Amino acid sequence: MEQALRVCIYGATGYTGIELLRILAHHHYVRIVSAVSRTYAGKHISDLLPYFSNSYLSKVPLSEEPQEDFDLAFLCLPHETSLELTPTLLEKGKSVIDLSGAYRISRGELYPEFYGFEHTHKELLNFAVYGLPEIFRNSIKGARLVANPGCYPTVALLSLYPFLREGVDFDSIIVDAISGVSGAGRKTTQHFHYPEMEQNIMAYSVQKHRHTPEMEDVIKRLSRRDIKVRFTPKVVPASRGMLSTVYIPTQEKRIRDLFYETYKEEKFVKVVQEPPMTKHVIGTNMCLIYPYYDERTDTAVVISAIDNLGKGASSQAVQNMNIMMGIDESAGIENLPLFP
Ligand SMILES: NC(=O)C1=CN([C@@H]2O[C@H](COP(=O)(O)OP(=O)(O)OC[C@H]3O[C@@H](n4cnc5c(N)ncnc54)[C@H](OP(=O)(O)O)[C@@H]3O)[C@@H](O)[C@H]2O)C=CC1
Ligand SMILES: CC(=O)N[C@@H](CCC(=O)OP(=O)(O)O)C(=O)O
């Protein structure tokens, strides 16, 4: 790439926006030219996040509207805000990576039930490419609008993909997954405040969560079948990280081979020898996967870990940007975790 890609981050002071700033600050092919924030407009990034004071980012002002022209926007915004902003940006010729759920589900009629609003731009739902690179890499190349997946669907679909690719037959699966609190965003609800969250573990949205139709939609696209997902999200008092267990009722027992074969060329998805832990992925773009077959119950069990703000959001968004723009796919996202 001869000239740096000019990037604007909308929602730059939320958790996914801040993680993008961290990753892109050292990305060789990118220059962040605008950082949009309503609340902190008029301040500089290093006023809020002093560790950026040695970076060129310290000079980038936070503003209510972009201050300079740009090529690509990351939308780290609430779903409804992204929904309305995306068509305007596309009309202006920008490329868009939307971290919200506004363009993830191909069936627009599901939005009122699962998101609580009518989808006002259904014409874009088939134009948007679902940004899970290990599954949809070829469609992401050259895409103008990428819908970055939800954190739970990222880890669950990577845990399931080898079965779908092989055409293994089953009617329903269970996804049982645990998230760190940052999954809820920076402005959070009462239950996630420190006095209630500290020393606490809870399930939430157990009967209806917007990631259930997202998973089912992608599964249907891959298998052409209506496979049902029983999903239970839980939250634990950790800042970030996500651990998922997927249960697949099947007679297919060669599952480690299936996983090695599917992911052997992948840099960011690794099949591991022991059940993974979140401390091995925090701050990285990695998904570590441990599949095994439980003979007693005829069930394939897949335990996987990601960082909800990494592979579950911002570093996956950068992976998508790299692919869209024809940059080396791992540029800027090869960092290792802080351990312990
Ligand atoms: N946190 C996570 O792990 C993941 C989040 N996502 C999705 O990414 C998007 C961003 O998430 P996250 O960074 O966690 O969220 P945050 O709540 O941390 O940040 C969202 C930012 O959006 C800005 N904003 C602009 N318009 C509005 C508005 N009308 N109402 C509220 N905020 C607004 C706010 O900044 P300001 O007020 O300064 O404008 C705010 O800082 C969401 O759609 C989320 O669902 C996806 C995967 C994982
Ligand atoms: C702990 C927690 O609250 N997590 C969020 C998931 C965040 C995410 O990936 O999702 P979206 O982009 O689809 O909002 C939740 O369950 O709503």
Automatic annotation (TrEMBL):
Protein family per UniProt: Belongs to the NAGSA dehydrogenase family. Type 1 subfamily.
Cellular localisation: Cytoplasm
Catalytic machinery residues: 151
GO CC field: cytoplasm
Signal peptide: none
Keyword Oxidoreductase in annotation: yes
SMART domains: Semialdhyde_dh (SM00859)
Gene3D superfamilies: Dihydrodipicolinate Reductase, domain 2, NAD(P)-binding Rossmann-like Domain
Enzyme Commission numbers on file: 1.2.1.38
A Pfam family per the record: Semialdhyde_dhC_1
Molecular functions (GO terms): N-acetyl-gamma-glutamyl-phosphate reductase activity; NAD binding; NADP+ binding
A single GO BP: L-arginine biosynthetic process
Organism of provenance: Hydrogenobacter thermophilus (strain DSM 6534 / IAM 12695 / TK-6)
Name of the top EC class for this enzyme: oxidoreductase
Broad class of the protein's primary localization: cytoplasm
Keywords: Amino-acid biosynthesis, Arginine biosynthesis, Cytoplasm, NADP, Oxidoreductase
The name this protein goes by in its record: N-acetyl-gamma-glutamyl-phosphate reductase
Residue ranges annotated for the Semialdehyde dehydrogenase NAD-binding domain, each copy included: 6-143
InterPro entries found in the cross-reference section: AGPR, AGPR_AS, AGPR_dimerisation_dom, AGPR_type-1, NAD(P)-bd_dom_sf, Semialdehyde_DH_NAD-bd
